Structure formats: structure tokens, C-alpha cells
Amino acid sequence: MHIIQVGMEYDVLRENNKIAHENYRLMKKHGIKSVDIMGSIGAGKTSLIIKLGEKLMARGQRVCAIAGDVTGEDDFSRMAASGMDAYNCNTGHECHLDANLVRKVLEGIDLDKYDVVLIENVGNLVCPADFPLGTDYRAVVVSTTEGDDMVRKHHDIFVHSDVAILNKMDIADAVGVDPEVIMEDYSKLTGGLKGMYACSVRKDEGIEEILDALRL
Question: What CATH number does residue 66 fall under?
């Protein structure tokens, strides 16, 4: 029984990766740059996407966002209210987006209208790590309000991300967290090859460096 379960899991991941490659090729066909933005609830994913979108649109880029949530339209509504084109994607019961869900959303979008697609994954630091969506980059966002042990507790999502972002730097002192601990843990995990990008979305600090890191 154990062997069958492992085989089924492998098949699911293999099929997801196959569809992810198809999503990647589809977006490249339309000249789109894309980012999968992961992180726990309250890390600031939605606010970051809105801020990135505003800056990109101010430079003449055509941007849309896909809001991934288990249920509801809260994040989608915030994105749409910012002036950015947004599309909602509810998973129903799943704790992550997968490539097939994203494919269904992409099939309903006129991709020729956009230069950049920003995807907000479901708030979770575990499940999304195993399910690439077919984007150019995968970014993980954590915040100082989550404590200084986030990297130590969630190795996989940091290992499987291209860019790591530490948000809410402006209130680190207020919540009693030393950002250097988080950054040092990340540096150790990645062998010093990658640095974590510190920012405060609320104060519009560090956003340009994130745009550069994502090649946007």
C-alpha cells in the first residue's frame, strides 16, 4: 500500500510539471514575463503584487494578476481596485495552486494584452513548494511578524524559490524580531549563493530591488 501511495504522488507531480512546462511555453509564445508569488497568510503577498503592478504600469508595462485563494474574492477585489486587471482562481479545498488550475485561467485570458502576469499563490509555506506553475520566477514572501524561525521551519519553499523577500521591515523592532537572524538562516540554507531582499511594502521601500531581482 505504501508503494502505491508513493507512485500516485509521483504521477501527480509529474503531470503537474508537464502542464507547468506547457504554461511556460504558452506565456513565452505571447512574450509574457511571469512570477509565482508564494508565502503565508498575512505576509503581504497581495500588497506586494499591487505595488509591483503599480510600478510596472507606471513604466508602460501591461500587467495582470491572478489571485489564488481557497475561496472568496478579497484579494482579487483589492487587486482590481488598484487599477490592475485581475482574475480570481479559487481552489475549493486545495492548499495551493497547481499548474492545471493556472492553465484554466490562462485559457480564459487574452494573453496578447499583457507583458507581465503576477500570480498570488494560496497562503501556505508548505504545499506550493512542490507544484511549479510554469512561471519564469518563483518568489517566497515572509514577514517580520511571523517570527525569526520561518526559514528554519520551511526549508523546501525557500529552496524551491528563485527570490526570497522579507517584508514589514518597518515594524521589526515593534514585534521583537531581528531580521538579520532570518537573513542569516537563508544565507546558510542557500550556501551564501543568494541573498534575501528586505522591504516594506507599506512604506514603498526595497521594491525596486525586488523588480530587478525578478527581471521585471
Answer: 3.40.50.300
Counted domains in the chain: 1
Give the domain range for residue 140: 2-213
The whole-model pTM stands at 0.93
- For the ranges 7-16, 54-63, 107-116, 139-148, the lowest mean pLDDT is seen at 7-16
Which range (6-15, 151-160, 197-206) has the least confidence? 6-15
CB atoms within 10 A of CB 75: 21
Q: Which grid coordinates belong to 48?
A: 506586494
Contact yes or no for 117/27 (Cβ under 8 A): yes
- Residue 67: CB partners within 8 Å, gap ≥ 6? 46, 73, 75, 76, 79, 86, 87, 88, 89, 120
The residue to which cell 500500500 is assigned: 1
The rounded distance, in Å, linking the Cα atoms of 102 and 192 is 33
The answer to whether residue 5 scores a pLDDT higher than 70 is no
Q: Count the alpha carbons within 13 Å of 212 in the hemisphere toward its beta carbon.
A: 5
